[in-house]
């Protein structure tokens, strides 16, 4: 804790007239989300439970270490492995935490960011763990992945804590994290959207569009894909004044098949896992995606530098 300097004044009148600066307290600054020791314990518990789930070939234990989109995506990956009679889902190598960033908070929920290196899968995960209340456990709520040696932006820290950014804050960047998330969903839904030129090109968009074109090429089958950005709840300031935002996206792939047609997919595809008998009616596959979005300061366009996602369910089959 920093103590403000106390200036001694020689004139009694000035001493009486001036207010002595007060020392800032933890209450004034807010509480750091978690200590290094607490974070170590979070990852130790996470590794134990994740390994148990992989050994059991069951997503059930994951609910005590994960939540929301991460839990949905991981559960979907387990279900795919089971339905396709594949080997057990990929088990992570020992967790190698490269760096952690802890913001300050005046109230719950609390959260912190961790950069985790996975040599086995050749990816780096940028993760957010959140604690909803004092009596609740820390749960993994975001885990977008980027290439192993990707250069991640430095984050701004003040008083030993990373600086949070509100979802509607567009200071320095010209666009808020929420607006960028909504625009990115519009871009994914429609390549001709007006916002298409406001983002830097990225591999995730190319991958999504290639898959959508394959689905639209199915003879006699109608295909529609929709996207929606969720509320942005985790964003931090980069050292140069930009924003690094964790964005959750919901995706729906709807197929409309004529009565006299049955569509089947490759053995290892999510469609085959959730529609094993093929499709002869109308139905929708549901996906969740998480992207790590860098919104630079100035005129440089936002870009996605990491992603994680997958199929989470099906409707109408």
Automatic annotation (TrEMBL):
Keywords: Signal
Every DUF8094 domain range: 33-316
Residues spanning the membrane: none
Family matches, as InterPro entries: DUF8094
Signal sequence range: 1-17
Identification of the protein by name: DUF8094 domain-containing protein
Organism: Aeromicrobium halocynthiae
Organism lineage string: Bacteria, Bacillati, Actinomycetota, Actinomycetes, Propionibacteriales
